[in-house]
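Why should sequence recovery work at all? Because a backbone constrains its sequence more than one might expect. Tight turns favour small or flexible residues, buried strands favour hydrophobic ones, and helices have their own preferences. The token representation captures these environments compactly. In the example below, the structure is given first.
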């Protein structure tokens, strides 16, 4: 890539912003197109999990990719320093019925991890207000978290300071750029230049937020997780494959709230606001990252529920494609052409 090359990035979610910043740092002139508000996307409607361990254990589609997820998480400290956010490294706790805990522990140990078993006194310290019925659990330090909204804002500030230009409109093509990076989530508007987008399918998700105190670590139970930050509480998250609308569904909200209340009974009186987002998924659960079928097109889409976790790895790979640098050991796993080769 010649210095000052003009690159268009379509999409200003976690993948688009992280990639735009990395390209600008590599010397490109970057313009980001996105008609939505700064956090009005799936990345904004997220808990900010950087959770390779529990994602691999609790999500069957993700289990074979634990090494890749861990490598992505390990790139986060550099991004943390670059944009000035704080990663919560306090870990995550699993609680639940005996069989659920047994399956979770077995899965973690299969990955080569060594969860810390916790009795009730330790749980009280890590997760104040936890329901009395949960008398034991497991702590995993490998899983981290960021505040999604704050991190989107920090990425945008850092990108602007690096010279990235933002246009509040939809990209319809290269928009004068020499390369086009498509990071539009479930959007299909650019399918004419990226037929690979046909491999994506939508997943609708709900989360609940409340202005309430929850000072504990991330807690993962059966049917819900709970995260907290000063004055903020999140319960997540539903997954409805095949749906691409953002309407709030009372049945989904009620089920999510009930699952959260089973973990923390005090949540029954909290005033929650429901939010919805639509993520994109590929048939194998991994994003499409790299060169597209058409010359000059690069894809960074389909991260399913791990957009935040994978963002710095995706950005590094896109920069390597643009600069003709070393793409690293995960490029083939993420190659958009893998579905063509498989006849999918």
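From this structural description, the recovered sequence reads:
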């Amino acid at each position: 890539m010649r210095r000052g090359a003009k690159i268009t990035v379509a999409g200003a979610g976690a993948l688009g912003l992280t990639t735009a910043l990395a390209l600008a740092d590599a010397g490109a002139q970057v313009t980001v197109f996105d008609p939505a508000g700064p956090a009005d996307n799936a990345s904004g409607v997220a808990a900010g999990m950087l959770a390779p361990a529990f994602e691999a254990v609790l999500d069957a589609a993700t289990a074979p990719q634990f090494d890749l997820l861990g490598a992505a998480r390990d790139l986060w400290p550099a991004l943390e320093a670059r944009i000035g956010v704080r990663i919560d490294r306090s870990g995550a706790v699993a609680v639940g019925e005996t069989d659920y805990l047994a399956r979770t522990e077995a899965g973690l140990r299969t990955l080569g991890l060594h969860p810390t078993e916790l009795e009730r006194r330790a749980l009280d310290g890590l997760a104040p207000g936890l329901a009395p019925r949960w008398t034991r659990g497991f702590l995993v330090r490998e899983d981290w978290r960021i505040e999604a909204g704050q991190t989107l804002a920090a990425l945008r500030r850092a990108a602007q300071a690096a010279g990235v230009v933002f246009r509040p409109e939809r990209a319809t093509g290269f928009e004068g750029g020499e390369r086009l990076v498509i990071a539009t989530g479930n959007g299909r508007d650019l399918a004419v230049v990226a037929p690979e987008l046909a491999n994506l399918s939508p997943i609708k998700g709900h989360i609940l937020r409340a202005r309430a105190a929850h000072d504990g670590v991330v807690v993962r139970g059966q049917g819900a997780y709970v995260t907290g930050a000063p004055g903020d509480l999140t319960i997540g998250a539903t997954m409805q494959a095949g749906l691409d609308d953002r309407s709030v569904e009372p049945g989904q909200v009620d089920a999510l709230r009930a699952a959260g209340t089973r973990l923390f009974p005090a949540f029954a009186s909290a005033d929650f606001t429901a939010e919805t987002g639509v993520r994109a998924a590929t048939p194998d659960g991994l994003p499409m990252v790299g060169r597209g079928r058409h010359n000059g097109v690069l894809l960074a889409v389909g991260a399913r529920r791990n957009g935040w976790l994978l963002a710095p790895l995706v950005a590094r790979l896109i920069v390597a494609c643009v600069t003709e640098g070393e793409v690293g050991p995960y490029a083939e796993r993420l190659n958009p052409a893998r579905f063509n080769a498989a006849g999918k």
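A few observations help interpret the result. Residues 207 and 236 are 5 Å apart (CA to CA).
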